[in-house]
Amino acid sequence: MIIVIGATGFIGYYTLRELMNNGYEVVATGRSNKKIAKHIKDMGIQYLDFDLRNPHDIEKLPVENVKGIVLLSGLLPANSDVDLTIDENAADYIKVNTLGTLNVLEYMRKNKINKLIAASSYADVYQSWGKYAIKETEPRCPILKGDHAAYVISKNAACDMIEYYNNQHALQGIIFRLPPVYGVGPHDIIYENGKSKKSGITIFIEKAKNGEPIEIHGDPKLYRDIIYVKDVARAIRLALASEKAKGLYNMTSGVPLTLREQVETVIKVFSENKKSEIKYRPELKNSTPSFLFDMTKAKNDFGFIPEYKDYEKLMIEYKKELESGDFSFFYDKVQ
Question: φ, ψ for residue 125 (rounded to 5)?
Fold first, then answer.
C-alpha cells in the first residue's frame, strides 16, 4: 500500500492515477476540496480527510502493510493570498511544510515505514540559476527576500529533517527538487505576493487560441527547465520501486527551453484560425532568470528519463487533456 498525502492537488492526483494504473494499492488523503475528494472516491480509492498540521490526524493513517508515503501536501506562495507589504505568513509555511513533514516522519518511524518521497523547491539554489546545469551537490543559495523566501526556508528545513531521519533512523527518504510543473490542474490563477493573476502559460494559450498578439518581456533567449506532470508521476513510481534512490534529486526535463521557443510552440499547437503575432518587449523586465538542472542522478539511480523532453510533444498532450473534459473537477469552485 502507498499513501499519497495531498492527493487532491495537481501532482497528487496524477500520481494516484499513475500508481493505480500500475497495480498499486493506494490510499489518498486531502483537505477541504469535497469535489475532488468525491472524484477520488468514485475511482474506488480509499480517501481520508487529513490536515498535515494536526498530529492527531496522523492517527487516521493506516499502519499495516504500508510500503511508502508520497508527501505532496504543502503551502505554496502561488496559493497564498497574503500581501507581504501588509502582513506576514512565515509561521504558516513552517507549520505546514516543516512541522507537517516532521509529523509524517514520526508516524513513519513509530510504525516502521521506511520509504518517503517528498517535494522541494528549485529556488533553494536561486543564486546559481543561469550559470550552468545545476547538480544536487550545489550549495544552497536562496534569496531571503520576497514572497518565496519563507516558503523556501520551510522546505529546506523539511528536507534537512528528512535527511536527519535518513541518517538517524535508516529512512529511505527521497526528495524531488521540482521546477514549474506543467499539466492540467487548478493553477490557471496563481498568487504573486498576495495578488491573483493568470499564470504565464494560461495567458499564452488563451491568446494563441484567439489569435491575439503574445508579448515576450525581456530577453527572448532566457531559458527555463520545466517538466510535465506525467513525468513527475512516473518518476515517483520508479523511485518507489527503487532500493537505491535516496536523498535529493533534480526532477526536471534537463532541457533549456527559451521564451521564444515556448511561445512559438504554443502558437503552433493552440492557434486555430489566426496565428498569433509575437511582440518583443525587451524594455520590460522578466522577473524570472534562466535556470537549468542536471538530470544524471535520477537516471543513474532509478532509471528516470523524461518522456516529455520535447516541448511540442508536451504541449500536444497538454492540449489533448485540456480538451478531453476529464479534468473538469479541478475547476469546479464548489468546496
Answer: -120, 35
**Is residue 152 helix, strand or coil?**
helix
The amino acid at residue 59 is: E
The answer to whether residue 168 scores a pLDDT higher than 90 is: yes
In tens, the pLDDT along 206-249 reads 999 999 999 999 999 999 999 999 999 999 999 999 999 999 99
Which residue in 182, 177, 200, 205 sits closest to 190, CA to CA? 200
Q: Are residues 242 and 301 in contact, defined by beta-carbon separation less than 8 angstroms?
A: yes
Q: Which domains does the chain show, CATH number per domain? A: 2-183+226-252+291-302 (3.40.50.720)
Q: How many percent of the chain have pLDDT more than 90?
A: 74
Is residue 6 within 8 Å of residue 74, measured between CB atoms? yes
Q: How confident is the model at residue 173 (pLDDT cuts 50, 70, 90)?
A: very high
Distance between CA atoms of 113 and 171, rounded to whole angstroms? 8
Q: Nearest CA to 191 among 151, 223, 160, 225? A: 151
Q: Phi/psi at 130 (nearest 5 deg)?
A: 80, 0
Q: At 177, list the grid cell.
A: 527538487
Grid coordinates of 314: 508536451
The helix (run of H) or strand (run of E) holding residue 42 is: helix 34-42
Q: What is the pLDDT of residue 335?
A: 36
Whole-number Cα distances in Å, 32 to 8, 50, 74, 121, 171: 9, 9, 13, 24, 30
